[in-house]
Amino acid sequence: MLIEAVYHRPKLNWGYPYDLKTIHLRLRTKKQDVKEVWALAGDKYMWEKSKERVQMHVFATDDWFDYWECEVVPPFRRIKYGFLLKNDDEEIWMDEDKFGKEEPKMDRLFDIPFINPVDVFTPPAWVKDAVFYQIFPERFANGDPSINPKDTLAWGEKPEWFNFFGGDLQGIIDHLDHLTDLGINAIYMTPIFKATTNHKYDTEDYMELDPHFGDKETLKKLITTCHDKGIRVMFDAVFNHSGKTFAPFVDVQEKGEQSKYKDWFHVRKFPLAVEDGIPTYDTFDFEPLMPKLNTENPEVKEYLLNVAKYWVEEFGIDGWRLDVADEVDHHFWREFRQTVKSINPDVYILGEIWHESSPWLQGDQFDAVMNYPFKNAVTDFFVEDTTDALTFAHAIGTQMSRYPRQVTEVSFNLLDSHDTARALTLAKGNKDRLKLAVTFQMTYSGTPCIYYGDEFGMEGDNDPDCRRCMVWDEKDQDLELFAFYQQLIALRKQYPALRQGTFKFLHAKEGNNGLIYERSDDKDTFVIAMNSSSEPVTVSIDVKTTQWENMLDHTTLQVENGRLEEQLPAFAFVILKAVQS
């Protein structure tokens, strides 16, 4: 065994309470280097009487490592533990300090001292069952032309960074039946607070709606109507930076060092200016219109936390999506979580982070982040055809290994957004490739999100082209694709195994685009086989069940000799459910 590759540490994603009675233990080994791993676990105050060996299984694999996992249900919410690693000719014990040939003494083992309820990371349960729909309000629907911005363009003209089309809250209300028909039960709206741009990420007033979107009564009507239809509502907020018309920043612009708000921002040099393209104050990117807020300033902190409280208390929103979340200090986010969760523990806190996000996902800050590594892996394999099945499986395995399971279960799994080119455009208009990506999205762990219009086959390159006006004219809608989305969403909502069950890859080979994976719970088992190539492929696996139902056409497949074999045409897939005998 390559001992140098073996890794474990308590806490984080390696040893943690999944709930009040269950502890998950994980261990990393060199890929295909170890045949068996057992956890030795017991209560430190009654070690000899309580200790047991629990077999671990490989739950994820990447290019270099296997990741092992097991569940332990300790009798008194605490455990000491170590690991026994085996292959054909070796047995090695691992404790907190060393590797050895003998079973370690209890006082040398790893320790999870106690499962304190307050320390258990418990994201809102409803998120695991949610199918989100992202709305860019300015481009979704114009329901009240009387509040249109000046120089509003005709619906459907070419989007630019600074033009307006009159989308508003009433337009969303008018089309909620479209969302319920699709199967949506949660919406995420990009910012609706008062701002100067069409995207509203340059906030002028965090306590007021943008008048071009409507008033607070219209907002209350939207949220109430959504809740009546079983749709949760998540707002988008920018606490990293404000807009140039934010009153405190205007005061600093006017009064310089004499402004009482000068410490609300990160000013390097007065007067405020832009020198060689770089502002003399910190901003988002180098955008002078978006000055960075000093969230360590007590007055700024109080103001923003009051904003977070106000919209939850007064309007009953169900979630906060937090823009540029990784550039704000961790201490602020901890206070933010405490503030919001004290009002409603079921509010979903979602950070916009594009990379590995463990520091924010320990239960003291966010419930989840926007899962761009998932999007990248799906795009590379299904959409743009730049990787093979094995590389894809490894990318997903890496992501699964990074976080506690309860984080994976509520990760925000998107294929595109207002910040990226649309998936169908990246697929060069190949609808079959998009369908494969959507199928994986809807049958994978986590919370899927559909970007408005994808269900009708909307296209668009990078911003601003990805922010085109929603297509409401039926002749411009791909109704066959809409029906496909409906079918996959309905299937996901019908079977908990596709949302919360275990996930594992069964077939993924180098240089091949055939893929098989399994979703299962204590009631149902699904096998999904996919071909992400322009040529037919044959995929096969060993199975114990002899009869399977094709969930797309409800035909029955009989398996002989314990071998499930599927011949898949180009870009084809099947979703099979085991028929219980």
TrEMBL record:
EC number in record: 3.2.1.135
Annotated GO biological process: carbohydrate metabolic process
Enzyme class, spelled out: hydrolase
Xref: InterPro entries: GH, GH13_cat_dom, Glyco_hydro_13_lg-like_dom, Glyco_hydro_b, Ig-like_fold, Malt_amylase-like_C, O16G_dom_2
Domain Glycosyl hydrolase family 13 catalytic: 134-492
UniProt keyword annotations, A-Z: Glycosidase, Hydrolase
GO MF assignments: neopullulanase activity
Annotated family: Belongs to the glycosyl hydrolase 13 family.
PANTHER family xrefs: ALPHA-AMYLASE FAMILY MEMBER, MALTODEXTRIN GLUCOSIDASE
Record protein name field: Neopullulanase
Species: Paenibacillus nuruki
Lineage: Bacteria, Bacillati, Bacillota, Bacilli, Bacillales
